[in-house]
Amino acid sequence: QVQVVESGGGLVQPGGSLRLSCAVSVYGSFIGFNTMAWYRQAPGRERDLVATSSPRSTPEYSTAAKGRFTISRDDAKNMVYLEMENLRPEDTAVYYCTVNVQWTSFHTADYWGQGTQVTVSS
After folding, report:
1. 108 exposure class (CB count in 10 Å sphere: 0-12, 13-18, 19+)
2. What pLDDT score was predicted for residue 7?
3. Which of 2, 15, 46, 68 has the smallest number of CB atoms closer than 10 Å to its CB?
């Protein structure tokens, strides 16, 4: 069983910054984490990929996030972060964290959090 909990969302003015955190609790033995990622979903829109972090790979970002957002992870603490700078009103959305857990050599599974609201408005 895995619990994924996002935090750090809130109301921020345009041009401001926020740091989102994602805490992953794993109950049972597992090998480690593969891809950890952030998605977002604005009202009336589909859920879109924001940033991904995979072991031994360079992080990847959406066009909208590139240059303003930074994803990082701390596997020892079971955490993944999203630093967001120069926020714009169009960044307003619910931000979701997802992690892929390597349970055994042959079994992996994806888990999602419930999301944290980010609102960019003056």
Report:
1. middle
2. 98
3. 46
Specify the pairing of strand 116-120 against strand 10-12: parallel
Which residue bears the tokens 């895995």? Answer: 2
Please report which helix (H) or strand (E) contains residue 4, including its range.
strand 2-7
Cα→Cα distances 70→37, 46, 78, 88, Å: 11, 22, 17, 15
pLDDT digits (tens, 9 = 90+) for 77-120: 999 999 999 999 999 999 999 999 999 999 999 999 999 999 99
Look at the block and give the residue holding tokens 């050599």: 105
Bridge-partner residues for 113, per DSSP? none
Residue type, 13: Q
